[in-house]
């Protein structure tokens, strides 16, 4: 049965209940359409939870490089499932789930340069809660289908589509696209990906409504 949460505060309460008196590392996946509010939710949780034992891993760090995308002919579809190293991302989560004895490094994506920087993030042995956010955590395709089994729970972040689209266009403009380019990308590549992500919604353990 899918659990539904209707506020940031309710989401925080669930995290606290999942981590209370638990000896194993808890890994929570935050999935949703582009612009749904995954980062809003993760930022809120990170601010409210103990900083020394909580970490965030954005899936975006596993974007293929622009050079690799150009070579593969996928540069104009950046953000689609096959423009990420899904196997590398799944392998990272598996290591984090199983290995609590050493530092584990991961790449972080920077929108201002549209590239990832290797080994910029780190999970320490004393990290007991890991949040990981991204679009395709529940996808059934090869590589992606290895993500969900590593998670304690996977949460689908849901929001009104008009609000989501406005937020998405504003983000594209903020990072250098013209208004026309931003609308075209949001209603084109982003929307195609959003339609795909919507099909995975009922695989989630929890749906978080952020309207």
Automatic annotation (TrEMBL):
PANTHER family tied to this protein: URIDINE KINASE
Protein name per its UniProtKB record: Unannotated protein
UniProt source species: freshwater metagenome
Lineage, opening ranks: unclassified sequences, metagenomes, ecological metagenomes
